[in-house]
Amino acid sequence: MDRKNTIIIVLVAVLAVAVGVAAFLNSGNLTEKRKMQQEAKVVLKDRDGEIETIGLGYITGLHPVEFSATLDTSNSGPREQLYTGIELKKIFSSLGIDSRDYSTVLVKAVDGYTVALTMEEVLKESNIYLAYQMNGESLGTKEEGGSGPYQLIVREDQFSQRWCKFVTEVILEE
Ligand SMILES: Nc1nc2c(c(=O)[nH]1)N[C@H]1C(S)=C(S)[C@@H](COP(=O)(O)O)O[C@H]1N2
Ligand SMILES: [Mo]
User: What mean pLDDT, rounded, does the chain reach?
Assistant: First the structure.
């Protein structure tokens, strides 16, 4: 075998290993996210890393409320629904997070959907919630054809475009 062929074979082998490693790392990440969804967990982070991982027990301990909001989906017109959840800002304050330290909040879903909120919006009264029930029923997971276990509700968003379903991560940015 000449040198050129050897080089090509080595390059292909190196690429194959790199693709394999990348796929493996990615799948680990996905499995972890799915597990968080099954266990109904949400992780809060900032640039220094994880602040806290919270679950349904923590959220129900914060005195969730019922509120109405108008859901608009791709296959139905706008309809008023009754949600149960907690204002995002109340989760922050309960964890000792100082809203003045951050300007932006990113909310990420298991399918990669990401929504950006300004801290100003988050602090508005009765606007942005993390919901876990609609009309008294659990939201259900993506696998179950639901929109949860948690969904971000932005009451001021007329077309529900930032109502992030399947929330797994909340990232605070300075
Ligand atoms: N995780 C996630 N959340 C999402 C979306 C999405 O694709 N993924 N679509 C958004 C859009 S554009 C709308 S209108 C509402 C309702 O979307 P649906 O029609 O797919 O239910 O969810 C929002 N939240
Ligand atoms: Mo949409």
Answer: 95
